[in-house]
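Complex record, two chains
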Amino acid sequence: MAGLRLEGLRITRAGVPLVALEADIAPGEVLSVMGPSGSGKSTLLSAIMGTLAPSFAMTGRVRLDGCEITRQPPEARRVGILYQEELLFPHLSVGGNLAFGLPRAVRGRSARAARVAAALAEVGLAGFADRDPATLSGGQKARVALMRMLLAEPRALLLDEPFSRLDAGLRVQVREMVFARARARGLPVLLVTHDAADAAAAGGCVVELG
Amino acid sequence: MRPLRGAPLLTLLVLLGPVTAGLVGTLAPALGVFPALGGTRPSLAPMTALAAWPGLPGAVMLSVGVGLAATAISLVIVVLFVAGWQGTRAMAGLEQALAPLLSVPHAAAAFGLAFLIAPSGWIARALSPWATGWERPPDLLIVQDPLGLAMVAGLVVKEVPFLLLMTLAALPQVRPAQRMGVARALGYGPVTGWLKAVFPCVYAQIRLPVYAVLAYSMSVVDVAIILGPGTPPPLSVQVVRWMADPDLTLRFQAAAGAVLQLALVIGALGLWRLGEVVLGRLGRVWAEAGARRQGDGVLRLAGLGLAMLATGAVIAGLAGLGLWSVAGLWPFPEAWPEAISARSWLRHGPGLLAPGLETLWIAGAATALALALVLACLEAEHRFGLVPGARSLWLLYLPLLVPQVAFLPGLQAFALMAGVDMGRGAVILGHLVFVLPYVFLSLAAPWRAWDARHASVAAALGAGPGRVFRQVRLPMLLAPVLSAAAVGFAVSVGQYLPTLLIGGGRVQTLTTEAVALAAGGDRRAIAVTALAQTLVGMAGFALALAAPRILWANRRGLRAG
């Protein structure tokens, strides 16, 4: 029962069907959802996260590791997401961004700082904790965004075209890093993209929308 | 979650409750009903008494004439300037000066203008005696002229920055660069093209602010006391005089005058609307006739010249106030005082401490309340996916469209009937009615423009809505929140009538002190008081600009905006 399951998920707006999807993503696996813009890819991710705008209606269920999370508020679902932009919080330092994601259960200032430092070191950014996120390069920002999300200990990961803004060389590198870490942590991953290369690199099933 | 859902309703109540109650409280005495003063049965006596006042026709003409003229002139200046200079460096320069200009209280700007244009003012001094031959101030009625021209000028110099700000805020939504690209490619001159292709859509967006300017200009009291004629004064000033009369039976007449003022504003708004329709039709004919250039060069220069004149008048007026406040002996026709001294500040400054603190306290409390309500409304909108309709914008503008003089006397009447002592608390709530719309209008656009995916990311990281608000959204939007607070603060500092009428004359702020000095003509006292009032208003803006820069000094991502 582990993994992310979408059971008869149907999203409509003003009665007009937008997305319908049935899926079962095992831990460590990637499901790629492809489709042109406007096909409801981002809406699908919002539904799984629980941030669907009230103008949409949703039926069906979302199950994570066997528990239904459809009625839970977004912050309780433990579903991580990476967007096309890194969306680092501009008012916090790099370390502050990571600490924002770190669970409250990690107590004590020094223990939290140590976890943040270790996470930065893991992606080759040791010593970056006090930096202003606006001064980082694109690749560095992508790594910080990934580690911020992973520190929150999600049980599934959603990717909303997270590689499409990076240039070709960096793109392969960041893509490898994200997939490798998701696999290592046994996270079911749902990737939406309009780029066949991303889907191919993910190596899992591909669903076409729209 | 629950209390937040009620925020829009509470805000509406705070805004419209006093307006509605005040209108009822004004209407009843106007129809003879005011039990506390012996009026128990409806009668037309207050209306007949008002009609019998010999000054009525003149007061009505002034009110309507000044209001329409000030609004039309301000709008023309703003439109010509934006049409000719959109996207240029001149525009960017003026945009920089907008915030401080807006924070100058109406009363201080009016005093500054009076010090410039009076027969013994700076302009006459600069030209005397070499050009005019005047050795003594000429016996001319320039300030407080019977036609209200000085008052129109005083209103124009303050309404031009306001309408300019509103126009610049509305402009991006109609994508002026693309429209102008098309118009210019079709061979249209910059001004003609802008008027034909951009203006109609911009006007639709700034219609409510224009209406607010019209309603304000028709019924303003402090500017009228300083720059307007005295016998007869504009109707609103006469209403306030009757309200202040020890003979309480004049309250009936005052209420009747207030109701007439409301009717005049409604009538003038109707007339303006009619003018919009007619001009809209004519404009369409003009646009379709295909003329490419119609005096573009001249109009462009006129727009720049008039906008500079309007803003320059405020700045020069403030400089004049500054000079008078430190002037020793300054005989006519010298352009500069013979000596500079701190005597006026030392003499009048200590007396301003108490009203200054009162001003800070009232403005601070009204701004804090307004900010709390506005943030709660915007957050409720975000969390519950509420979509505010066009009607909610009208409701927000309602306190700015109903003349102050029409509903504030009613609030006072209620207090008198209930025997409640209206002190500082009531004045704060009174200010809130006018502060809140401005805070909302300033904050709504940047708040709504925030990328809500930041909230999604924070939620995915385990942060609940409260934490997202406190730790992500509020810090990221600190700069716009503080500038909205500064706008609200300046609005409160400048309020005259709510302080006077709700406070029953017992709550003294820098503004009521300054306006009270108008009749006396002690220039040094006026200069010190009006400058103190201006400085308090500007201090808010200075703080709002400085705080984010200091707090986010090491955060480049927050400095771009």
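Note: DSSP finds seven helices and nine strands in chain A.
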